Amino acid sequence: MSAVSRPISPTVFAEAITELPVESLHAEAAKLQNDINKLLESNAALEAEKAVETEEGIKFLDEVIVENEGVVKSKEERIGLLKAEVEKRGQLWIHPGKKDEEDQDEAQAPAVNGSGHAEHQQEGGRDAEGGVYL
Questions:
Q1: Which residues fall within 8 angstroms of residue 42, CB to CB, at 6 or more apart?
Q2: Which of 6, 30, 80, 128 could link 96 by a cystine bridge, Cβ 3.0 to 4.6 Å?
Q3: Where is the composition biased (Basic and acidic residues) (predicted)?
């Protein structure tokens, strides 16, 4: 028996996710995207580290970077399988990491009404100062 743990194949992964609820598929995609982001940050740090390394150290760092890139591709493939499963069920795919960015953009951009003026309304049609805008 091998001491090395290997991830399941994409085929087995695709079969396994058919049993999960849509919310779990989105959660798994978010987890995978987080892993990808960390690997990319790690690779950037490793690239910077190469500036002060010996030739042997640079070779080792290059091997680690290539290995990380392979893991990133595997995780991206799994995200693609999750997306395909969600869409196969007729549901909307929410790309992990992008929903938050869109929410932040909407929260920061002022709403504009039909006359071209930014709306300053809260619930009940009143703004923060108590005025009513129609």
A1: 68
A2: 30
A3: 117-134
End-to-end CA distance of the chain: 73
Cα torsion through 90, 94, 95, 101, rounded to 10: 160
User: Between 55-88 and 22-49, two packed helices, what is the crossing angle to 10 degrees?
Assistant: 160
Q: Within the chain, how many helices (H) and strands (E) appear? A: 4, 0
pLDDT digits (tens, 9 = 90+) for 106-129: 444 444 444 444 444 444 444 555
CB contact set of 13 (below 8 Å; sequence gap of 6+): 78, 81
Domain ranges of the chain: 10-93
Q: Report residue 82 CA to chain centroid gap.
A: 12
* Burial class of 119 by CB neighbour count within 10 A (0 to 12, 13 to 18, 19+): middle
